[in-house]
Amino acid sequence: MDYDRPLFFRVMQYADAADRDVVDMVSGNPDWAPPEALREGLREFADREPEAFQYSASEGDRPLRAAIADRHGVDTESVFVTNGTAEANHVATACALDAYPGDEVLLTDPVYPYYAGRNDLLKAETRYVDADADGHLDPDRVAEAIGDDTAVVVVNSPNNPTGAVYGRETKRALVDLCEDHDACLVSDEVYDAFDHSGRFTSALAFDSPNRVVTNGFSKSMAITGLRVGYCVVPAHLQDAVRTRHMLTTIAASRPAQAAVLRALRETPDAYYEANRQLVEDRIETFTAALDEAGADYTAPEGSFYVLVRFDGFPGTLENVERLIDEAGVAGMPGEAFGSSRTEWLRFALVTPRVDEAAARLTDYLG
Ligand SMILES: Cc1ncc(COP(=O)(O)O)c(C=O)c1O
Hints:
Blueprint: H1 7-17, E1 23-24, H2 36-46, H3 62-72, E2 79-82, H4 84-99, E3 104-109, H5 113-121, E4 125-130, H6 139-145, E5 150-156, H7 168-180, E6 184-188, E7 211-216, E8 229-232, H8 238-249, H9 254-266, H10 269-293, E9 296-298, E10 305-309, H11 317-327, E11 329-330, E12 332-333, E13 345-348, H12 354-365
Parallel strand pairs: 1-11, 3-4, 3-5, 5-6, 6-7
Antiparallel strand pairs: 2-8, 7-8, 9-10, 10-13, 12-13
Helix pairs in contact: 2-9, 4-5, 4-8, 10-12
The protein binds pyridoxal-5'-phosphate (PLP).
Domain Aminotransferase class I/classII large: 21-357
GO molecular function: pyridoxal phosphate binding; transaminase activity
Keywords: Aminotransferase, Pyridoxal phosphate, Transferase
């Protein structure tokens, strides 16, 4: 997949330049507020001594690592704080490629495009495994694709762009397959706070040297700009991850880590529940309008994206630009997510105007 320059930017620029009002449903930037304790943590940090503005420990501030470890019931040493889940994915994939035999990385189709671009950057061979029509991943298909050349299997649940949540059995099967084939599962769980199905299971539920879990606070705390993520790494990969992370970025932002730690400690569950409910209400509003228009869509079990198919209107970049100009709604072309959803468009429910967007879409295409 050719992915040198993310299409997100191109579509967002096109929408910004449009000569009309456009409802922006392109990016994964939440429009809801971060936790109050996060803001307080940033304010408090601003008045700290000069020493506090210097590098944190490369692996991450110890109290934050301990708090993350505590949440997941893992050892603090296994937690590395990174510049977003993006860096965690990068470091995990690169280190697993080095550590395991073979130079192939299995991805799903549809795929989160940065995984595909990263494989090219790392000069890995990419093999795609098709997800089911509803976005679920059938471990039997992974079993057919995985082989001696496979070093890494990257999965994402709750999923961007399908919204699928892989259940416990699937995660168990993926860990088993990686163990049986001397490969590493990289399980990206950045949308775990947005599980609408109640079926989300972390790969951390299965103790194994053959899996890395990546995650972060961009989505759960609505802070994509702060760049705090982490990976949970088995003992045999920890030196490699430590070195690669240090040589790439030295450390994650210290004020951001301090603010996230405060938010982790002080934010009530009600904050996460309210945002999940907000997304669920938007899903209901958006999909009800799509139902009326007779459009096909995948109702997300998790995350905050909806894939939609309108008859005779494939998910090309050209059609996305037409929708911006003629309907006033900006989404992402399905062709950005691999080859299996080229008929589809992806809309991110990160605007209070989802009802208006649905009305505009159905007026134009319904
Ligand atoms: C599947 C997936 N992984 C990772 C990321 C990046 O997360 P972060 O902002 O924590 O780097 C995103 C962002 O949209 C995503 O959709």
